[in-house]
Write a structure and sequence with these properties.
Blueprint: H1 7-16, E1 19-23, H2 30-37, E2 42-45, H3 49-57, H4 59-65, E3 70-73, H5 81-92, E4 98-101, H6 105-115, E5 120-124, H7 130-136, H8 142-148, H9 153-156, H10 161-177, H11 186-198, H12 206-213, H13 217-229, E6 233-238, E7 252-255, H14 258-265, H15 270-276, H16 279-297, E8 304-308, E9 314-319, E10 327-331, H17 343-352, E11 359-363, E12 369-371, E13 374-378, H18 379-384
Parallel strand pairs: 1-4, 1-5, 2-3, 3-4, 6-8, 10-11, 11-13
Antiparallel strand pairs: 6-7, 8-9, 9-10, 12-13
Helix pairs in contact: 3-4, 8-14, 11-12, 11-14, 12-13
Length: 385
Amino acid sequence: MIPRDIASVLKQYSRWFPVVSVTGPRQSGKSTLVQEVFSDYSYVNLELPGERAAANADPLGYIHSHPAPLIIDEAQLAPELFNVIQVESDKVGAPGQFVLSGSQNFILKRQISQSLAGRVGLLTLLPLSYRELLAAQDDLPFDEYLYRGGYPRLYNVDIPEDVYYSNYVATYLDRDVSGLINATSLTQFNLFLRILATNVGQLTNVASMASDVGVTTKTLRAWLSILEQSYIVFLLQPYFANSRKRLIKTPKIYFYDTGLLCHLLSGGDASEMERSGTLGPVFENAVIAELYKRHLNRGETAQLYFYRDSNGVEVDLVDATVPSMPELCEIKSSRTYRNSFMRHLDSVGELLGAAPERRSVIMRSNQTTEINGSPIWTVEDWAKR
């Protein structure tokens, strides 16, 4: 197993909360992580038909026959367990009694909010970050990670990326989406997923995409919510500062994993994407997702935005996770630095109160340098910091 940065946070949460929940996309490594961190806990998997039937038939008896500390994998498959877990955890009162994980995040989160509010520590495990992979194999080029993505199986088994992601999409549609939308709409949903891939890094135009897919804007927004809750895509919201400038209010769409994104684009490796013109938005997506993972792996609530005003002044990424110290980044797939990369960073940095050392350019270059106090990072060095 490639060590996960979130492991120490997960262990700490088990000292604070009676119940800890780990959500995230399918196949991100949740089951492996919780069994590794809590190797002395009992473990049950409710995807096994016998376990699921027993848990649903007699929830109280099931918990009594599997005393805490206990890991319950795919916990959302036995909804009545959550009330029992609430009662049992309150009765004992100690932290670290139950660890819950699951891939159908919308269902698991709803059950947690209904029964375990205030008793549960919530963590999210995304696919492997580039930082995590570099710790395991420090010669991995970012361009290779960009195309392959971060799903652990791709690094544990010698499987072609197109085979893996074709099966991933099919499984996702069959197991996670089919129960939430009309079965006759699955083909359109698949088309929507691919249209989203072509719109990465652009302002979200729901009406245009709805027209392309052939559904109403209401349906499209519901489908987008499904993709967000299942950790396939996320919306990067615009940053609103206390200024008089007219700012863009429409979010942008990004994927949590660029391997899946590249598969949906059928874009080939980095060289092929560079020739086709898709490398820029995919590289931008990869850097933003990497920063998102870094914050989540520290147990932080990531506050990531982009800045754009009505005059076209734009900065790719504003990290306001520490509000008093915003960090601004321009993300360029170029290997050659140009002075124009800093133009908006400096003006927006002055506006938002970001010191020069917190205004960065992240590139595919070969050497990290500094210009007027602002770092010009290679993406590899930036990921390691």
